[in-house]
């Protein structure tokens, strides 16, 4: 077994157990793991940004390809920091306007194309064709797809009515918006179910790793570190309890 | 005057240019988009340092003022420094603990790769990512699963028709994704598929319409200078 991998496994197991110790109660190990996570993540982001944004996107084209126009975005990036100097703070607004204006212009046609037309395309489907007095789909088969398409149209209309606040919700509008609430509730339930299952799959992944790392191949990393953690907790609790009893007696 | 009007003029010009750009399928138009995107990557990279500075400054003040929990801020700084030093020192870990034959690279290869990507399989930073960031992220998010489940246990009571629908949808989705659901009743995975493809799609589409309308109107307000909150300040 390679030493770097072994060291990495013990580190990963230790940090995982530190984080799960929060399920017992908020403790020093959890907070240690939390701050380590924050520190290494920020460090990692810095390294990535410097290599990708500065070296690859700026330094390399500027020095090697002599693409001197890139000095402009570099200066624009630095100009954002003029916000800290009251007299020249207005310069940063010009850069913000450049970024926000670009985003607004880029967003409008793409939102119309992707967020409205593409969504409408999925809704505006032939519901059914009448044949011998019965309803059939576009292929001539009687299937539940027709009913589902109808449900989708009813759902979209009622949810839009529910979110339409320019008209007072009473009478027919109230009834339709009520149907909209039911659709929204089902969608929220589905999202919730998905979120929980996503988190559960992560938990299973961590448990799977802990079980794998408890094998002799990894020198029983999970078992050894778990026992150590439990012992430290027991000693800590005993010392704390003893301290409290002594304080009360005094 | 120019301090106030120039940003509005630039926002208007950029907005109009990139609305028109969408309708011109010419190489020059595509190049313009790529070019501005590249610029924004550089500007974004430089501005990101501000956020990182704010976080580090907060923890520095925690330590400097000896506030409760300052020791954890020290740990944060220490971890941050390890990550940065290792990131900028290719193969530092490899020097301390040699890598297996298969992943050993020549110094020139490592240098070249770092010049291009800054990250490589088997590099020191990759080691931190695989054995530090990945397990910590997965553990952190999986812990949230426990709290979501316990909160749901308290909140999901079928008191009304709305709450019942929410509960049923969540139960069918959760059971439908596990083998247990199919074992309990073969219809559960089908119900899950129907929920996702029909009522869920309807509600999500309606919400997407709303978001699209909102973002279009907000973008138009920015372009025409009605929305100026992003400029901030009074002067």
Q: Regarding quaternary structure, how should these chains be classified?
A: heterodimer
Radius of gyration of chain B: 26 Å
Largest interface: A-B, 115 and 134 residues
Largest sheet of chain B: none
Whole-number mean pLDDT of chain A? 87
Secondary-structure element pattern of chain A, one letter each: HHHHEEHHH
Task: Tell me the radius of gyration of chain A.
Answer: 30 Å
How would you state the average pLDDT of chain B, rounded?
83
Please report the distance between the alpha carbons of the first and last residues of chain A: 55 Å
Instruction: Describe the global form of chain A.
Output: extended
Structural class category of chain A: mainly alpha
Distance between the termini of chain B: 10 Å
Q: Topology as H/E string of chain B?
A: HHHHHHHHHH
Number of helices of chain A: 7
Helix content bin of chain A: over 70%
Q: Low-confidence segments of chain A, ≥5 residues, pLDDT <50?
A: none
Q: What fraction strand of chain B? A: under 5%
Descriptive overview:
- The two termini of chain A are 55 Å apart.
- Chain A has helices at 3-20, 28-63, 71-79, 90-123, 145-162, 172-212, 221-249; strands spanning 129-131, 134-136.
- Chain A has 7 helices and 2 strands; from the N terminus they run ααααββααα.
- Chain A has a two-stranded antiparallel sheet with strand order 1-2.
- Chain A has a domain at 125-212.
- In chain A, α1 (3-20) packs parallel to α7 (221-249) and α5 crosses α6 (172-212).
- Chain A has 250 residues and is mostly helical.
- Helices cover 74% and strands 2% of the residues of chain A.
- The radius of gyration of chain A is 30 Å and the shape is extended.
- Chain B has 235 residues and is mainly α.
- Chain B is built from 10 helices and no strands.
- In chain B, α7 (161-176) packs across α9 (187-197) and α9 packs parallel to α10.
- Chain B starts with a helix and ends in a 12-residue tail after the last helix.
- Residues 91-104 and 112-118 of chain B have low confidence and may be disordered.
- Chain B is 78% helix and 0% strand.
- Chains A and B meet through α1, α2, α3, α4 and α5 of A and α1, α2, α3, α5 and α6 of B.
């Amino acid at each position: 077994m390679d030493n770097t991998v072994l060291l990495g496994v013990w580190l990963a197991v230790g940090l995982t157990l530190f984080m799960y110790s929060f399920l017992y109660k908020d403790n020093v190990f959890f907070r240690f793991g939390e701050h380590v996570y924050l520190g290494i993540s920020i460090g990692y982001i810095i390294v990535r940004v410097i290599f990708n944004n500065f070296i690859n996107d700026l330094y390399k084209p500027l020095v090697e390809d002599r693409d001197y126009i890139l000095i402009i975005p570099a200066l624009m990036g630095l100009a954002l920091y003029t916000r800290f100097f009251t007299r020249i703070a207005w310069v940063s607004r010009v850069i913000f306007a450049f970024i926000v204006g670009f985003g607004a212009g880029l967003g409008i046609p793409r939102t119309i194309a992707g967020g409205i037309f593409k969504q409408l395309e999925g809704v505006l489907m032939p519901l059914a064709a009448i044949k011998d007095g019965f309803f059939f789909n576009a292929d001539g088969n009687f299937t539940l797809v027709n009913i589902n398409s109808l449900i989708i149209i009813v759902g979209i209309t009622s949810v839009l009515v529910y979110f339409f606040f320019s008209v007072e919700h009473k009478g027919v509008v109230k009834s339709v918006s009520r149907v909209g609430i039911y659709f929204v509730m089902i969608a929220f339930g589905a999202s919730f179910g998905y979120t929980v299952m996503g988190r559960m799959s992560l938990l299973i992944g961590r448990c799977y790793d802990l079980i794998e790392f408890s094998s002799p191949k990894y020198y029983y990393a999970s078992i050894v570190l778990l026992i150590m953690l439990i012992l430290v907790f027991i000693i800590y609790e005993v010392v704390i309890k003893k301290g409290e009893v002594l304080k009360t007696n005094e | 005057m120019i301090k106030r009007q120039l940003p509005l003029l630039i926002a208007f010009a950029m907005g109009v240019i990139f609305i028109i750009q969408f309708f011109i399928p010419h190489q020059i138009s595509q190049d313009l988009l790529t070019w501005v995107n590249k610029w924004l990557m550089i500007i974004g990279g430089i501005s990101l340092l501000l956020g990182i500075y704010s976080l580090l400054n907060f923890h520095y003040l925690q330590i400097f003022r000896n506030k409760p929990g300052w020791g954890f801020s020290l740990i944060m700084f220490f971890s941050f420094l390890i990550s940065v030093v290792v990131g900028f020192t290719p193969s530092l870990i490899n020097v301390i603990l040699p890598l297996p034959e298969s992943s050993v690279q020549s110094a020139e290869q490592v240098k070249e790769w770092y010049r291009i990507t800054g990250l490589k399989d088997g590099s020191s930073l990759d080691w931190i990512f695989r054995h530090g960031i990945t397990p910590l992220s997965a553990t952190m998010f999986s812990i949230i699963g426990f709290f979501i489940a316990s909160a749901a246990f308290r909140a999901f009571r079928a008191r009304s028709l709305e709450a019942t629908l929410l509960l049923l949808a969540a139960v069918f989705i959760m059971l439908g994704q596990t083998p247990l659901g199919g074992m309990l009743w073969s219809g559960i995975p089908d119900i899950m598929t129907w929920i996702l493809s029909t009522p869920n799609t309807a509600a999500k589409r309606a919400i997407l319409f709303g978001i699209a309308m909102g973002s279009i109107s907000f973008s138009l307000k920015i372009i025409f200078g009605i929305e100026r909150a992003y400029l901030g300040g009074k002067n």
